[in-house]
Batch of 2 targets.
Target 1
Amino acid sequence: MNQKIRKIERVSITDQVVKQLQALIMSGEFKIGDKLPTENDFCAQFGVGRSTVREALRVLAAMGMIQIQAGKGAYVTKDKDNSFDAIKYWFAEKHAELSELIEVRMGIEPLAVRLAIQRASPESIKQIQEIHQAFKLAAIRKDHIELATLDESFHNAIIQASGNSLLIKIGKLIADSMMEFRARSFAVIENINHATIPHEKIVEAILKKDERAGTLAMIKHLEISKHDMEQVAHEIEKT
C-alpha cells in the first residue's frame, strides 16, 4: 500500500476512518473488485478498535462504495462518491421502503423525546447538546459523511436518554436500516439545512423540559424528511 495510513485522532474516530478509507479507494489504492484488508488489519493500521472499523465499513457500504459479503470480507464496488443523479434515482427506487421506516420512526421518536425530557440525566442532555454542536459545524463544512454519523448519534442519544430498554432496541434496528438513507440524503445540500433547524428546536425543547414542544419538533422533523424524499421521487416520475 503506497498511500500512508495515519494514526487516528480520538475525535470523530469513525468519520476519520471512513474518510481515510474513502480516500484510499478514490485514489486507486484499492480498486473496484479488490478485497479490503481484514478488520484486524485495519485495527492495527489505524490504531482503533474493531467496533470503529466495523462502523466505518458499514458507512462505506451504505454509500455504495463497498459490499460486505458474510464470511468473505469487504469488496470495493465503486471508486467515486455519489453523483446527484445517482442519489435521486436511489431515493426513487427505495421510496416505499424509506416511507415505512419513517412511519415507524414517527411512532417511536416523538415518544422517545418526550420520555427523554422526563428522564434524561444532565450527562445525557450534555451529550445531546455536544452532538448537535458537532452537527452544526459539519453542516457548515457540508461534510455529508460526518453529518450522517452525527445524525444517527443525535437520534440515538435521544432514544438512549428515554431510559426505555425496548425503545432502545427498536431504535438500534431502525438506525441500522437508516444509515444508507442518511449517507445519501446529506449529499443533497438542501437536506442539510432541513435537518439542522429541526435539531435546534428539539434541543431547545429538551433544555426547557417542554414535552409538547419536543414532541411537535420531532414530528415536524420527520415530516420534513418524508416530504424531501417524496419530492425526489416525484421529480423522477416526471422525467
Note: The first strand starts at residue 66 and ends at 69.
Target 2
Amino acid sequence: MKKKSILFTAVAGMIYLGTTSYHGGAAADGSLNRTGADGTTANCAGSSCHTGTAPAPTAKIHVDSAGGVPVTKYTPGKTYTIRVVGKHAVNDEFGFQFAAVSGTGSGQVQAGTYGTSLPANVAKHTLTGLDLIEHTDHIAAISPADSFVRSFSWTAPLTDLGNVSLYLTVNAVNGNHMADMGDVSANISMVLAPYAATSSVADVTTYVGVTAYPNPANDAINVSLSGVFGDATIIVYDMLGRSVAKCAAEAWQVSGSIRIDMSELTPGMYHVVLTTGSKQYHAQVLKQ
C-alpha cells in the first residue's frame, strides 16, 4: 500500500512538472527564445509552453530618451529607457521576454547593451548570443489592475548598425502555475532607424539670410534675421518633425536677432524654420 502511494505521488509530480510553465523565464528554464527575434516564430503559446486560445493580451514597446521624449531613431552609443507594457482583461499575472537585435531573420545578432540595474522579477539571460530580458517570477498586475509595466535602460550600439529591431512577447497567465488553455500570449516588434546626423557642423550655419549661432549650441541659440523684413514666426523642430520651441518676431525686431531657449531640449540635431509671409528660411543646429 505504501509503495503504491509513493509511486502515485512520483507520477503526479512528473505530470505537474511536464505541464507547468517556464516560471523563471523561457530562456532560463527552457532555453527558449519566444520573442520573434533571430528567426523564431513561436511565442509563449508555442509547443512545450503555454497553449491558450483565449483573446490575447496587448503588448507594447515604448522607447524614451533620457528626457522622457519618445523616439523612433537611435543615436549610436546613446542610452535610452525601454518600457514594456502588457495588458489583459481577465488574467492578472504576467511574464515577458524582450530582445534588441540587428540584421534580418536567422542572421540577427545582439544590438546594444542593457544596464545592470533591472527591476524586480526581471533578469538578463543570454541564449545563442542574444541577451534576452525576461521575467524571473510572475509579475502581478498593477493599477489599472489588468496591466503590468517594466522599464530598463538600453544603450544603442556604439556604431551605426542600420535598423535595430526590438521584439517583445507578453504572456498573461491565470495564476495556477500550469501551462493550460487559460494562459494567452502576444508578440509585437518595432524598428529603430539610425539617426542620420550631418557629417560635419560649421561654426555658423546660414540659409538664405537666416543665421543660427552658436552652432553647436548649449543652452540657447540666436537666430539672426538680417535681411528679412516683416513679422516672422520661428519654430524649432526635432528630427522626428515635432515642434519643440516657438517664438514670434514682430516687425520692429526682425532686423536684429532672436534668442531661443534650448536648455531643456535633449542633445541632437534640430531644424530651425523661420516663416515670414509666404516664404520660409531654414537652418540646422546641433544641441550638445
Note: The helical segments are 2-19, 26-30.
